[in-house]
Write a structure and sequence with these properties.
The complex is a heterotetramer.
Chain A (H helix, E strand, L loop, with lengths): L2 H14 L12 E6 L14 H10 L4 E3 L5 E3 L2 E6 L5 E6 L13 H11 L15 E8 L2 E6 L6 H5 L28 E7 L3 E6 L20 E6 L3 H10 L4 E2 L6 H6 L3 E5 L5 E7 L8 H10 L2 H9 L4 E2 L13 H7 L5 H10 L8 E8 L4 H15 L1 E8 L1 H13 L5 E9 L4 H7 L11 H12 L2 H17 L4 E5 L5 E5 L2 E2 L2 E3 L3 E3 L4 E2 L2
Parallel strand pairs in A: 1-10, 1-11, 15-16, 15-17
Antiparallel strand pairs in A: 2-3, 4-5, 5-7, 6-7, 8-9, 9-10, 11-19, 12-19, 13-17, 13-18, 14-18, 20-23, 21-22
Chain B lengths: L1 H29 L4 H5 L8 H10 L6 H13 L13 H36 L4 H15 L2 H15 L10 H31 L2 H8 L4 H39 L4 H10 L3 H29 L1 H4 L3
Helix pairs in contact in B: 1-4, 1-12, 5-6, 5-8, 5-10, 5-12, 6-8, 7-8, 7-10, 8-10, 9-10, 10-11, 10-12, 11-12
Chain D lengths: L1 E12 L2 E12 L3 E5 L6 H9 L6 E4 L2 E4 L2 E2 L5 H7 L4 E4 L13 H13 L3 H14 L5 H4 L9 H13 L5 E5 L7 H18 L2 E6 L2 H7 L2 E6 L2 E7 H6 L4 H9 L16 E12 L11 E12 L3 E5 L6 H8 L7 E6 L2 E2 L5 H7 L3 E4 L13 H13 L3 H14 L16 H14 L4 E5 L7 H18 L2 E6 L2 H7 L2 E6 L2 E7 H6 L4 H9 L23 E5 L2 E4 L1
Helix pairs in contact in D: 3-4, 3-6, 4-6, 6-7, 7-19, 10-16, 13-14, 13-15, 14-15, 15-16
The chains are: A alpha+beta, B mainly alpha, C mainly alpha, D alpha/beta.
Chain lengths: ~525, ~300, ~290, ~550
């Protein structure tokens, strides 16, 4: 029976009341406020950006990204690929230590990979690892991953926190993922009060091998506290009083903040985030004219201006700026541009008109003012005779719902404002190669084009990616709207120095100091 | 008689919890959509075989009665499963936060009683006077103000604009605003109920008897009216506390108070069914336990129940 | 001899409504409700703008003559949205209370009429539901059905059933134990007559008071659900939802939070006052006062 | 010496006068009865005297003196100091007049401490002494108990002890025994008489019951519609009332020495009870309490044209038997027969059809009519159901029924609350008559009515019986009413019949000690009759009934 520990837990909860958010942060502590909490400390059990950002502080990865988003060596000082592209051999840096003092070696990498492919409980992002069949310890600093087929997206993936190297000492630890997280990143976990705060302390033995910070070792600050403050105005108030150092501000206050000198605004670049229309793959949106009509009816510039001001920019490509293959000019030629007249024509051709409007659901996920944006789009669609009914839902729900809509035989038309963030064009394979992440649109020709992007590299891959993008855009399968999509604006108190955000929205705190 | 009364209440409570467990088991099956699919919705390309295996592991393919029994079995071991988001132990998660919700509801309750009771007494005592009318107009206005509005206004004024109190978080200083938000609107309810209960008591024959004995008015109010009026008021407080628990759900979300209500709303948005199930069970159990305690207080207060005839 | 004197007792119906209206509470409530009904019913005619049309004015225009309640961040006229919102709000209240009332009344009346094991079964179930609390029932329903305004209405309606059932039951039980009910039984009235011609009309006055107060409760609960994002979805001009959307602009455009909040508070106040006035007018003590004259 | 002197008292509620021109005076040690029917203003007068009128009432008087002190214009505090030691009051409802959440001891001692500044111990001693004087056993233990642990009679004793402990100059008793059974009433009245005599307290007794007046009062004041009718010493008033109203009042009182109704021709029974038993189970999931046996093997017949009175005190089971007879209570053992046919098992449609044979009239005339049904609908309901009448035909028939009970057809469109109590009871009788029943079960049909009205309703019932050959099962607690209306009587106690037979035999030759006790306790409206001390209630186990003379059965 487990009554006793639970009782203790209960008491601990009661005591937790005693620890208030400090009126002013202590010396050498930096407080970062976010709208939500992490789901878990276990990198194999969640996909939210909120979680990823924290993992990137606690854990380290084999690869890292440079400012453009390209992968560079990190824990792995170098790697070799076999001729056929199915064997990757990594050489690990020397003298890396886990937070519990054990050395980080090839065994830890193998542990991480094996864990991701565990039959009983695979990682929720298992498929992103690609067709990895085995991880092999060659010697303490050499590890070999064997693939069933070539997979060029493996290297960028290993730069992302989904592939955080989990020290194998976690296997013995009670409560990995909830109260324990032994990594080798710059910050080690002190405690996690779920729903409220994560307390991190600088890891003294940290050595930076490739991450995007100037600091070669231990963070300058002693403590990093990540608190959950859902109300945007409350985060702003906290920033103003000094309770909070870094936070996502209310978007509507950004311009006012920029003109003041109390608080600085940092806008992340190369977030990889892509917001786009997609359509349920059945009647009526199996008709390409209707999909194109939606694309032509959407005035992205105006909508963004209204909701985000100049904080967000229209995106022409299905993969966003900073990701391999992105080319605004190329994409703009293929994407149906704003042209309400053309939209009406297309609708009329397909048999819809003012007296017979196209009725559709419009699924949108909550947060980031996407509800307001959707309302603007809703109004634009109404202009050309499309009645879109907005349904707001959590992203998890929306993912399931989109798939459900695709799998249905009939029913009301359904489209959604989907959002994805990825560091490699391989996302397009995941989304649109048979069977497709959402069981959406697929075709043999598209499959063939997508397969090419997995086995080619360099210019050849670039061309392959362009083919795919052109196909997706012309057929209005994946209609890109804008980038970035969420949590990419940071407000920081002006005395905070050295805060930066790595590509794909990973804030870095190693360089942070608090000035006067 | 008192033992019998309490045993009856206890049985009722156990039945409630029992029914809750059944409802909670059924809940996941009433949901449109597949929970497992939602669980793995964000990972691309989980194969149907893998989903099936997960479904099997969660026992979702078993016949319903079997699912229920295994649910009960695990429940008795203190296991309510894991959350879909992040696979955290559900019961632990809820019990961690329950004290915060109880603290909020409790503080609001104390506030509501401390404000509402005297106002109710005063209004009843001065029935028909301008004092009564003024207080009751205030009370009815108080009942009508949505507490999510009041909460936001309080937060914006006192925490955001004036900066007197911390804006969000979970600690003693953070308790003040949510407790006031929840307490004020309920103080109005308490005042109204106290007044009508007191007026009821004041029109009883025994109060006339006390007057006929020539007792001072204060003594009649303190000894007779108050004591007799306390019985229905205590019952009402039981009900109040459950209102508070319900109201706490909204208020927690405004003030980011780290209680089970906020957890629950997040869970609903995330369609985290194990967590929703656990929340319903924990919430219902808490309410049942609190009601039992109130019933006990009621029994101790009322000699007609306390003493066997 | 007991000559029949043409009674000088006041006519019940007229004096009843008179009593309701003569109370300040009743008069105020009546005024607000009439206003609400007008706003809701004539929104198409009276609303200065289309409630969902963007850029009806410049975004975040403060209240002015052209936009008496200002505009929101999409440039929509807040007054128009509030007026159309009245329609939604009244519909929410009516449907939710309708569900609670019809089902609660059915359960309560049947339990009181049938007695025996069915009564025990029905009322114990109601007790169990009641101890779940309304909030929990509503949340559980939204959790199952998913967030939408319709589901919120259903949830709030279902959550109210236990209370309505209990009240109807208590009232019906007290009526059926009165001699006139037994008189009707003795006169040979069958179950249908007893339930619908005798019990129902006598339980209704109590239930009308409960339902009037319940309206305010339901409106508040549904607004809370919408506020939490579990009810109305954009672009519905639901007040709770508008309030929730307006909080991001609190410092720059406080009117976005002020007016929806005020609208909810006034509506709830009106139904609370109306319920109180009805109850006061029906109170046997105030009837006695009338008779004593 | 005059204790109380009131001249030209007037009380108004708002603009509505409720009492006017009332003069009262009471001498030391005197007992004055204030008599009147409902609405006569007698209780208001007492409350005005106590200074306990509701806030909306206004009062004027030329004089209002207690022990020479002017009560008019006294401050609340000054009046309060007089209440208790100067004037004490006992109320009608013993069940609700004591605070349920405080001990008897607390309630008895608090006034002693407030008015006389007694210490806790001294006040307790006084309380024990007073409880002893009102014949409550183990008074010291009783002080620790709560009101609900006392019976109604005992509570009234406590009330008396509590009030008399302050030795008031004037004791006001407002219908002190109306809610009590006759045997208990006799004891309480006896107790009050003794205490008043011993302490020299003056008594203002408010009552509607001329029997109580005759036993208690030295002088009598009669009130009607808020006005004084006459004040007279008791003996001459009863012997030769001067005012018409007083005469009507006295003549309306049923008397135990009134002439009997002639016995009807013997006919076969229309309604028969065979060995009826009925228990009420204790409530609760965990059934521990013993079921209460309300009826225990009762066998009874009622013949056509006959009135059988069921007499007994509260809890005797008389009303339960009535309900079983009307088939409103079906959960019993034994058989019920109509015209010799066993109808015990009938349910549903068959039962509803049969209902036209047995009809019912209840005690509370307001509660017995659906408040939302017009008289026309109420009367029309049985006609529609049993005779399938509708439209004009139904209206005519309903008007006809109203005429039979002495009401005009214009009453058809009116609602029950527009009528007086007596009129409502007539309507209830008309409804019972609508289906042309063989038997009417009347459960205390006149108890809630004023005596003058009671008399007329009883007349009506007699007339109807004669015209239609109706049988009545008349449930009552009042032996005088029995004598007035019944041919036969059955005396019930604790669910059994202890004595049954022709009225003359049972009332004039009571054999069972319980019947004798009831008769002895019944107040008689004749001040010259010797006041018999109430007989102690016999507690003999009941034996089966045996025949003592022609039709006269006794359980002995």
């Amino acid at each position: 029976m487990t009554t006793l520990p639970r009782l203790r837990l209960c008491l601990a909860g009661a005591l937790a009341l005693g620890t208030a958010l400090p009126a002013a942060a202590q010396d050498n502590e930096i407080v970062w406020a976010r709208y939500g909490d992490i789901d878990t400390l276990d990198p194999h059990r969640a996909t939210s950006t909120l979680s990823l950002q924290v993992w990137s502080l606690i854990y380290d990865t084999l690869m890292a990204t440079d400012e453009s988003g390209a992968p560079v060596p990190n824990l792995a000082t170098s790697y070799e690929v076999s001729e056929d592209g199915t064997e990757y051999t990594f050489t690990l840096a020397e003298g890396v230590t886990c937070h519990d003092g054990t050395p980080l070696d090839a065994q830890d990498v193998k542990y991480t990979v094996d864990r991701a492919f565990d039959d009983a409980e695979p990682s929720v992002t298992q498929s992103s690892w690609g067709p990895v069949t085995s991880a092999e310890v060659i010697d303490p600093l050499t590890v070999k991953l064997t693939l069933g087929s070539p997979f060029v997206a493996l290297i960028p993936f290993l730069a992302d926190s989904f592939s955080s190297i989990i020290c194998d000492s976690n296997a013995e630890a009670e409560g990995f993922g909830s109260s324990v997280a032994i990594g080798s990143g710059p910050w080690k976990l002190e405690s996690w009060t779920r729903g409220d705060r994560i307390s991190l302390a600088a890891f003294d033995d940290y050595v930076n091998h490739g991450k995007l910070s100037a600091n070669p070792g231990r963070p300058y600050m002693d403590r990093l506290t990540i608190v959950t403050v859902p109300e945007a105005q409350a985060r702003l108030a906290g920033l103003r009083t000094g309770e909070i150092h870094v936070a996502e501000p209310p978007l509507d206050d950004v311009s006012a903040l920029q003109s003041g000198d109390e608080i600085d605004i940092v806008v992340a670049e190369n977030t990889g985030q892509n917001v786009f229309w997609e359509f349920a793959n059945r009647a009526p949106f199996d008709d390409v004219r209707l999909r194109q009509a939606v694309a032509h009816a959407t005035d992205v510039d105006t909508a963004l201006m209204l909701i985000y001001g100049d904080l967000s920019i229209p995106e022409q490509c299905p993969i966003s700026r900073g990701v391999f293959g992105n080319d605004q000019e190329f994409c703009a030629q293929h994407r149906p541009q704003y042209d309400p007249e053309r939209a009406r024509e297309l609708l009329a051709e397909a048999g819809y008109g003012p007296s017979n409007p196209l009725e559709t659901n419009l699924l949108v996920w909550t947060g980031g003012k996407r509800d307001r944006l959707a309302e603007v789009f809703q109004a634009q669609l109404a202009e050309v005779g499309i009645n879109a009914q907005i349904e707001m839902m959590d992203i998890g729900t929306m993912n399931a719902r989109v798939r459900q809509e695709n799998e249905r035989e009939d029913g009301k038309a359904s489209m959604d404002m989907m959002t994805w963030s990825w560091y490699d064009p391989d996302i397009l394979y995941a989304l649109w190669h048979t069977p497709g992440a959402y069981r959406g649109f697929t075709s043999p020709e598209l499959d063939a084009m997508l397969e090419k992007t997995r086995v080619t590299s360099g210019d050849a891959r670039d061309a392959a990616v362009r083919d795919v993008m052109a196909y997706l855009l012309e057929n209005a399968i994946h209609v890109p709207l804008y980038t970035p999509g969420w949590e990419w604006v940071f407000a920081i108190r002006s005395e905070v120095e050295g805060f930066k955000v790595a590509p794909f929205v990973y804030p870095i705190f190693s360089d942070v100091r608090i000035g006067d | 008689m008192m033992a019998r009364y309490l045993i009856r209440r206890l049985l009722m409570g156990v039945t409630t919890i029992f029914v809750t467990t059944i409802a909670v088991t059924l809940l996941i099956h009433l949901v449109p959509g597949d929970p497992v699919q939602i669980m793995y919705a964000q990972s691309q390309g989980t194969t149907p075989e893998q989903l099936e295996a997960i479904r099997d592991r969660l026992g979702l393919n078993d016949p319903l009665p079997l699912q229920y029994l295994s649910f009960l079995g695990r429940l008795l071991e203190g296991d309510l499963g894991q959350t879909i988001r992040g696979q955290q132990p559900v019961l632990e998660l809820l019990l961690e936060r329950l004290p915060n919700t109880l603290a909020l509801a409790g503080a609001a309750m104390v506030l509501a009683v401390a404000i509402g009771l005297p106002i109710g007494f005063l209004a009843a005592y001065r029935r028909g006077s301008w004092v009564d009318s003024t207080l009751m107009i205030a009370a009815i206005a108080g009942v009508s103000v949505p507490h999510f509005w009041l909460g936001l206004v309080l937060m914006f004024v006192f925490a955001v604009n004036l900066g007197w109190l911390p804006v969000a978080g979970t600690g003693p200083a953070n308790l003040i605003l949510p407790a006031i938000t929840l307490g004020l609107s309920n103080a109005a309810i308490v005042a109204r109920m106290t007044r009508s209960s007191m007026i009821d008591v004041m029109s009883q024959d025994f109060v006339r008897t006390a007057h006929a004995k020539g007792l001072p008015k204060a003594m009649i109010l303190n000894a007779h009216v108050m004591r007799a009026g306390l019985v229905p008021i205590v019952t009402m407080m039981g009900l109040q506390f459950t209102y508070m628990m319900g109201g706490a759900i909204v208020v927690e979300n405004i003030f980011a108070w780290n209680g089970i209500g906020r957890l629950a709303i997040d869970a609903i948005f995330q369609r985290d069914y194990p967590l929703i199930q656990g929340f319903i069970l924990v919430f219902a159990t808490t309410v049942v336990i609190v009601s039992l305690l109130i019933d006990l207080a009621y029994a101790l207060l009322d000699p007609r129940i306390r003493r066997s005839a | 001899m007991t000559a029949f004197a043409p009674s000088d007792a006041p006519r019940r119906t007229r004096s009843f409504w008179w009593r309701v209206l003569m109370q300040p509470a009743g008069a105020i409530a009546c005024a607000i409700i009439v206003l609400l009904l007008a706003a809701a019913g004539l929104a198409d005619l009276l609303a200065p703008h289309d409630p969902t049309r963007m850029a009806a004015g410049r975004p975040l225009t403060p209240p002015s003559l052209a936009y008496p309640m200002g505009t929101d961040e999409l440039g929509r006229d807040v007054l128009s949205r509030i007026m159309y919102g009245a329609r939604l709000t009244l519909r929410i209240g009516a449907i939710a209370v309708g569900i609670s009332l019809v089902l609660g009344l059915t359960v309560g009346l049947l339990a009181a009429y049938l007695r025996g094991w069915l009564e025990a079964l029905l009322m114990r179930s109601v007790d169990v539901l009641f101890s779940f609390t309304e909030t929990l029932i509503a949340l559980a329903f939204v959790a199952v059905l998913g967030p939408s305004l319709t589901n919120a209405m259903i949830a709030v309606g279902v959550a109210g059933i236990p209370f309505y059932a209990r009240t109807a039951y208590a009232s019906a039980l007290s009526e059926r134990s009165k001699p006139w009910f037994e008189g009707a039984v003795a006169a040979g009235a069958g179950p249908g007559r007893l339930l619908f011609l005798h019990l129902l009309p006598n339980v209704m006055p109590t239930m009308i008071v409960v339902a009037t107060l319940g309206l305010s409760n339901a409106i508040l609960a549904a607004a809370a659900l919408s506020f939490l994002g579990l009810g109305a979805q954009p672009p519905q001009p639901e007040w709770g939802f508008m309030l929730s959307a307006g909080r991001d602009f609190f410092s720059r455009a406080p009117w976005l939070m002020l007016f929806p909040g005020l609208a909810i508070a006034l509506t709830v106040l009106a139904f609370n006052l109306a319920g109180d006035a009805l109850r006061e007018a029906m109170d046997p003590r105030s009837l006695l006062r009338e008779d004593a004259r | 010496m005059t204790v109380l002197d009131i001249r030209n008292l007037a009380v108004a509620f708002g603009a509505t006068p409720v009492v006017h021109g009332v003069d009262l005076s009471i001498a030391r040690g005197e007992a004055l009865a204030l008599v009147g029917e409902s609405g006569s203003g007698k209780s208001i007068t007492a409350m005005a005297l106590m200074g306990l009128l509701p806030a909306r009432a206004s009062m004027t008087a030329d004089a209002m003196e207690l022990e020479g002190q002017d009560l008019r214009g006294l401050s609340d505090a000054a009046l309060r100091r007089l209440r208790g030691p100067q004037m004490g009051m006992i109320f009608q409802e013993p069940m609700t007049s004591l605070t349920p959440v405080l001990t008897i001891g607390r309630q008895m001692t608090e006034a002693l401490r407030v008015h006389f500044g007694l210490s806790g111990e001294a006040a307790r001693a006084r309380a024990i002494d007073m409880l002893d004087r009102v014949e409550i056993s183990r008074p010291a233990d009783r002080l620790r108990q709560y009101p609900h642990e006392f019976s109604g009679g005992m509570r009234q004793r406590v009330m008396i002890a509590m009030t008399m402990a302050l030795e008031p100059r004037l004791l006001i008793a407002d219908e002190p025994t109306t809610a009590l059974d006759v045997t208990v009433q006799a004891q309480i009245l006896d107790l009050m008489r003794t205490l008043v005599r011993e302490t020299g307290t003056s008594l203002l007794l408010i009552t509607h019951d001329m029997g109580v007046v005759a036993q208690m009062a030295d002088r009598v004041t009669v009130m009607r519609h808020g006005r004084l009718v006459e004040t007279e010493a008791a003996a001459p008033l009863f012997a030769a009332p001067r005012q018409d109203y007083t005469r009507i009042l006295l003549n309306s009182v049923p008397r135990l020495d009134a002439p009997l109704r002639p016995a009807p021709q013997p006919t076969p029974p229309v309604l028969g009870f065979r060995d009826i038993s009925r228990s009420f189970a204790g409530r609760g999931l965990l059934r521990r309490s013993e079921p209460v046996r309300a009826l225990d093997g009762v066998t009874l017949d009622i013949a056509r044209g006959e009135t059988l009175a069921l007499v007994g005190e509260s809890g005797s089971g008389k009303s339960t038997l009535g309900r079983i007879g009307t088939r409103l209570d079906l959960e019993h053992d034994g058989r019920v027969e109509i015209d010799g046919i066993d109808i015990t098992g009938l349910r549903g449609r068959a039962l509803r059809k049969l209902r036209s044979r047995v009809q019912v009239v209840f005690q509370d005339p307001l509660a017995s009519l659906d408040p939302r049904f017009t008289v026309g609908r109420t009367l029309g309901e049985p006609l529609r159901i049993h005779q399938g009448l509708a439209g004009e035909c139904l209206r005519t028939r309903a008007a006809d029924l109203l005429a039979q009970v002495g009401l005009p057809s214009s009453a058809l469109g009116r609602l029950p609350h527009e009528f007086s109590g007596g009129q409502r009871q007539r309507i209830a009788i008309a409804r019972a008559l609508a289906v042309d029943p063989a038997v009417i079960v009347a459960d205390e049909p006149t108890s809630a009515l004023d005596v003058s009205v009671q008399s007329k309703v009883l007349d009506l019932m007699e007339d109807l019986q004669r015209e239609r050959g109706l049988a009545y099962l008349f449930v009552t607690h009042d032996l005088a009413v029995v004598r007035r209306i019944a041919h036969r009587v059955a005396v019930m106690r604790r669910g059994r019949i202890v004595e049954m037979g022709p009225v003359s035999a049972v009332l004039d030759d009571a054999r069972h000690p319980y019947t004798q006790a009831l008769l002895a306790a019944a107040p008689v409206a004749d001040p010259t009759r010797a006041r018999r001390p109430p007989a102690p209630m016999p507690h003999t186990p009941d034996k089966p009934l045996s025949l003592v003379s022609d039709g006269h059965w006794v359980a002995a």
